[in-house]
Design a protein that fits this description.
Layout (H helix, E strand, L loop, with lengths): L2 E6 L6 H13 L2 E7 L10 H12 L5 E6 L3 H7 L4 E6 L2 H17 L4 E6 L9 H9 L10 H13 L2
Parallel strand pairs: 1-2, 1-4, 2-3, 4-5
Bound molecules: adenosine-5'-diphosphate.
Length: 161
């Protein structure tokens, strides 16, 4: 079975993430979308909240499994028998860091490949950080994050002010 991991912080999941996930789910027989809790980023949402938003919005993909891990990414991939790590590539700004991570991962786990899917033009500019910033200013989020999570997400951001 072809298995891939789509890792990230998903703080929160955006339409850009879901676009990558949809495309990965057409390429692989099974995709683990995994909230990595050791990424060094300071998330605004709790792990449970991020998982809940992913579960709410990925139900339509039967071959996608929502998960979380505090392991090293390649160790998690091995545990799941995945040979591919899927990453979204937005602009040149993503390239340096992602290239570095892919090289390090291929050094420590040569049998696991990183596959980059180019961001859709529509979501090229979209990041979870931009969404959080817009939510603080009350901007309409319907073009950026799935509608199922908008109200709850806005409440979460407001309660943290
Ligand atoms: P962010 O960079 O928005 O904080 P994550 O760390 O959760 O998001 O990103 C997880 C993965 O999704 C990364 O590979 C990232 O490049 C990709 N990604 C994030 N936003 C988009 C987008 N708008 N389009 C395509 N890929 C994206």
């Amino acid at each position: 079975m072809s298995i891939a991991i789509y890792p990230g912080s998903f703080d929160p999941v955006t339409l850009g993430h879901l676009n990558i996930l949809k495309r990965a789910s057409r390429i692989f027989e099974k995709v683990y979308v995994c909230v990595m809790v050791n990424s060094g980023k300071q998330p605004v949402l709790s792990l449970e909240q991020r998982l809940e938003y992913l579960r709410l919005t990925t139900g339509r993909f039967p071959n996608v499994v929502v998960d979380s891990s505090d392991k090293l990414l390649v160790d998690y991939a091995k545990e799941k028998n995945a040979k591919v790590i899927v990453k979204g590539m937005r602009a040149v700004s993503d390239f340096d860091w992602e290239f570095q991570m892919a090289l390090v991962n291929s050094k420590i786990a040569p049998d696991i490949d990183t596959m980059f899917l180019m961001a859709s033009q529509k979501y090229m500019y979209l990041s979870s950080s931009i969404v959080k910033e817009m939510a603080r200013y009350g901007v309409d989020l319907s073009e950026f994050i799935p509608r199922e999570i908008i109200d709850d997400f806005i409440n979460q951001i407001r309660s943290r002010r």
